[in-house]
Amino acid sequence: MATMKDVARLAGVSTSTVSHVVNSTRFVSDEIRERILKAVAELNYSPSALARSLKINQTRTLGMMVTTSNNPFFAEVVAGVERICYQRGYTLVLCNTEGDPERLRHNLEVLLQKRIDGLLLMCTEGRSASAEVFGRHPAVPTVVMDWGPLNSQADRIQDNSALGGYLATRHLIEQGHRRIGLISGPIDKLPAQSRQEGYRRALTEAGLPYRQDYVVTGDFEFAGGISGMQQLLALPEPPTAVFAGNDVSAVGVYQALYRAGLRVPQDISVIGYDDIELARYLTPPLTTIHQPQEELCRQAVDILLDRIQGADDAPRLISLEPTLIRRESVSHLE
Q1: Which letter, b or e, does each residue of 77-95 get, where b requires 16 or more Cβ atoms within 10 Å of its Cβ?
Q2: Which fold has domain 4-47?
Q3: Mind listing the UniProt keywords for this protein, alphabetically (predicted)?
Q4: Looking at 32-36, 203-207, 282-286, which range is the least confident one?
Q5: Rounded-to-integer distance, Cα 138 and Cα 157, Å
Q6: Residue 135 burial (CB < 10 Å; 0-12/13-18/19+)?
Q7: Rounded CA gap, 63 and 247, in Å?
Q8: What's the pLDDT score for residue 54?
Q9: For 58-159+293-322, CATH number?
Q10: How far apart, in Å, are the Cα atoms of 90 and each of 57, 135, 302?
């Protein structure tokens, strides 16, 4: 494999001059530049990314840790982050945790040992394990994207889930529904807690009772939506509308209602959360709460790059505002 010294020898210049041309760090005359570029082409020379990263103490690589899930929301966020990284001239290295704290610990060690410039976290498991690893690598800039360890040294960008839960429930109330069920996510996850808080606030404002039998703890997955809806249908007085904690759960709700011979929204209205791409293609298209994914991805990457470039202000907490997307899965009751 050709080296910079080989290029310099063939072009008849110093290695420092080759370096200036390859890295565009200093003016070099057109004649010399042309000789160097010709030598580079002849030798098929490729600069060493490792050597360059050691020299500038940056790899222009970001790591991202995500919980493995069937939820398309994660895939859409990862795609958005990768796109922003590419636009900013960075490479993204993705690791899945598989919901396993030990795997989280291992992947964090691997990413940090590979000298990533910064880290994006979108997973909740293994908070103590991650704290232990971060204790050995305190200088790595980190941004938590809603689902992540509550690390006081990390910037955090999160959806205002309490407002989203409130908007979803209030919309059902405005459509005349009084018996409203909730299929939440795991209660150890902050988004699930916050969405339930918004649900409860909307009921209270409308003077409606908070019924514990109408609240089912799900898992933010397809199967959880099915089993949650089945539990609600088994009640002596089932709800007329259901707020699913995310769109994936709502898909499960659709399936449970189909199996029961019930129709959306004629028999039961359904509203979801996240506004994944699939939501608009369901039958009927799903009314849902939109999370500003593009803004989430852009803010996460740009704040992380600010930290990498030396920003030293206090950890930031940025809340993104959800909005209601009206489609056809909610009926109006007279």
Answers
A1: bbebbbebbeeeebebbeb
A2: 434 Repressor (Amino-terminal Domain) (1.10.260)
A3: DNA-binding, Repressor, Transcription, Transcription regulation
A4: 32-36
A5: 20
A6: exposed
A7: 27
A8: 44
A9: 3.40.50.2300
A10: 14, 26, 11
